[in-house]
Amino acid sequence: MQDHSDHQPSPAAEPNGASVDTFVEHRRLLFGTAYNLLGSVADAEDILQEAWLKWDSVDHGSVAHPKAYLVRTVTNLALNRLTSARAKRETYIGPWLPEPLVTAPNAAEETEMADTVSTAMLVVLETLSPTERAVFVLREVFGFSHADIGGFLDRPEATVRQIARRARSHVQARRPRFDADDAARSEITEKFIAACHGGDLNALMALLAPDVTLWNDGGGIVTAARRPLYGPDHVARWLLGVMAKPTSADVRLEPAVVNGEASIVGVVGDYRIGALTYDIHEGRIENIRFQVNPEKLGGIQETGDPTS
């Protein structure tokens, strides 16, 4: 898999070794910050490029705290892009979902990347204002102090505390329910894959919660459901219908760890054509998010698109 968190600075800047080393030291944190703020792997990579250019051109002797400077730079670049991205989503075709990111099975043992939030949480974060999202991510995900965040955003510490409290309350009210441990989640994932491959409607319906909802993001580029699907019967029949299409003959469903959770990817050859993430509550699957927009799949590839 391409490690998006290990994005390298421009080769043109290599002569400045200290500058490169400092940036590389913090790049996982910087990528995680940008990704959690934007929900986009591609945009996060662009932000890192922009941040590198700013860092490489600054007088490093005047920067007392490089880590704080870099996080501040990435945060503000991401906030600018988030504002423009939300305007574009008003004309987005069909449901909008964040870009999935395949993470290592032992992601919990990594440092900053262990804090990459679930796809479900990224959807919840979309309901916050850009400033609320920045404060929540920096405080709740990466553990920065209110004073530090105030410095990043040019806001008084007291104001940041108020924003943090409001954002936390908002997220808690909308946080998806889930109660499955890793072993249970993996078992349900395996049964889901078997039911889809076997075309077993009853087995698939038995895995779905009574209030299951499926969102499918094709971005108007590939065929996808343009409205949410509701209920076990509707969702199961739609999923099996997709699997039964001639164009799906070569598709394999495989387990993968996406945004730190056991999930499913659709694979043709060596190329991953979609990611399916979901919540599990009381032993059943609910809130299914099916990402198939080819422009949003860079974060789940292992070898890249063979046609590129």
Automatic annotation (TrEMBL):
Alphabetized UniProt keyword annotations: Sigma factor, Transcription, Transcription regulation
Residues of the SnoaL-like domain: 190-272
GO biological process: DNA-templated transcription initiation
Transcription is among the record's keywords: yes
CDD domains: Sigma70_r4
Domain RNA polymerase sigma-70 region: 24-86
GO MF entries: DNA binding; sigma factor activity
RNA polymerase sigma factor 70 region 4 type domain: residues covered: 121-170
Keyword Transcription regulation listed: yes
Entries under SUPFAM superfamilies matching the protein: NTF2-like, Sigma2 domain of RNA polymerase sigma factors, Sigma3 and sigma4 domains of RNA polymerase sigma factors
One Pfam short name: Sigma70_r4_2
Record-linked InterPro entries: ECF_Sigma-70_Domain, NTF2-like_dom_sf, RNA_pol_sigma-70_dom, RNA_pol_sigma-70_ECF, RNA_pol_sigma70_r2, RNA_pol_sigma70_r4_t2, RNA_pol_sigma_r2, RNA_pol_sigma_r3/r4-like
Binding partners and assembly: Interacts transiently with the RNA polymerase catalytic core formed by RpoA, RpoB, RpoC and RpoZ (2 alpha, 1 beta, 1 beta' and 1 omega subunit) to form the RNA polymerase holoenzyme that can initiate transcription.
Similarity section: Belongs to the sigma-70 factor family. ECF subfamily.
Protein name, entry field: RNA polymerase sigma24 factor
Taxonomic source organism: Actinocatenispora thailandica
Gene symbol of the encoding locus: rpoE_25
